[in-house]
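Hey all, sorry for the wall of text incoming. These are the two entities for the joint prediction.
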Amino acid sequence: MAVNKIPAFIDNIDGRNKKNKLFLGLVIAMSLLTVVPIFFIISKIIINGIGQINFNFFVQTSPDSLQAMTAITNNETIPGGIANGIMGTFLIVLVSSVMAIPVGMMIGIYLYENQDRRYSNILRNITEILQGVPSIVLGIISYLWIVKNITNGFSAFAGSVALSIMMLPMIIRSTEETMKMIPNEIREAAFAMGAPYHNVILRVLIPTGFSGLSTGILLSLSRILGETAPLMMTALGSSVINYNITKPTSAVPLLIWEFYNDPNMVKLVWSSSLFLMAFVLTLNILSRRIAAKRKIGKKR
Amino acid sequence: MNSDKLTKTILFSASLLVLIVAAGIMFSLIGGAIPAFKAFGLKFIITNKWNPTEGHEVYGALPFIAGTLITSILALIICLPLAFSTSLFVAEYFRNTRVANILSSLVDLLAGIPSIVYGLWGFYTLRPFIVNLGLSDQGFGIFTSSLILAIMIIPFATSLSTEIISMVPDELKEAAYSLGATRLEVIFNVIIPNARSGIIASYILALGRALGETMAVTMLIGNSNVMPSGLFGAGNTMASIIANQFGEASGLKLSSLIAIGLILFAITGIVNSIGKYIIKQFS
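and here's what came out:
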């Protein structure tokens, strides 16, 4: 422990105290510097974005470049909104949730039930590797699998596949962690009453771990909602609201990217970012709230 | 009894999906990259030309590998003092206080902001700032991208090292205090030696994060397909060249982009595995 290095008896206590205080000051200054960007980012987006937000923003589809230009030259607010993006995001995220959440929970429960098997360890390692795969690589994969071979063109489904591969490892891990928290007595009691295995899972384990499971789900949703790169290569974008998962579909982050690249629509960038950020951060904070509550509940 | 067996079989077959997806990713990336490696050989990795002109097609990954590694490592260096101070603030100096809670939730918020929003903020705020400082004409480039990456990975570097610093046993710290050590001496002689490998692992995992970041970097790096000329020069990363050119690519170019994806996949995989391995040794 290198305790012998501590110069406790060297008579230089003033200098050491000074150094000590100096370091504390440095730590406080650096820590405050760390949170400065978050205020800058959030205030910039709110200030620039709030002006464009009105009812139409949520129910109309995105304008084309010409409409936006006319509005700017006439000094009006740009017409239209991001309804196509909102519906697209909803569709893509819904489909990926349907694919990733049930399977991910099953795998998490499998890992919990077979904790010490070699196979489980291999599975855990592979899950960790999957979790580290950059989202852009998942975009390539979904392009190769779905766009080229299944939907024969860009589609919402391809976007969903990319995002569901992103979600899967997060769901698996949070399910396994949650299951580990459930006292074994509860399971044993259920088995002792003669409950069949699937009932133990569906009626005991999942309800008991509900708050933990929902934390994991909300966190993973907040992660995939803002993903842009994989959707550029799979869902592509669309200027109309689309409900067909085999057709190109827009999404809020895709619209932000389009607005960013079109000088006439730059104003819309901020309001759509504000919407996306508010949505993602709400989910994020909500999930942390649930997690914090669970911790307090456990202490009692 | 039979239904129990059925349930177990269902759970087991679900677990096969992970293996299939992982194997499928490897298979598709390698399969897609073969034409590029066939055309250019392993020299693909060390060629620094990217020329899509028909007839003179030459593709090499070196500028992008360099761009990715330089921006990510620079981001890590910028993030290090900030993340380390924050974890000391939360896990040592102001442990379990209200202000530490607020600080750590603010840092967590950084993790929730989408990459594209970071890119926008970087483009409209950070880039003009760099221009005003006179560091570069346009404000695009390696340094700007590293700065935004540093902000993006702070929460990942902080949360794990906070946890590890708070795990250092109180007895050890108290022993040092009883010998007359100041807090600074306790931090450098007791806490850091005890938590060293865990702290290093958390920075390695944060590096893994930075390597794969796409949108924010794409919007700030300047997207020029050459070797980065300096700290403030423009460049391109593996992720951003894929994001920029994948849409219109076909044939050999598409295969080269997939090959870059494969290299990116391999590098992040290796970096993450090292981080995870150190963590496992630690606990």
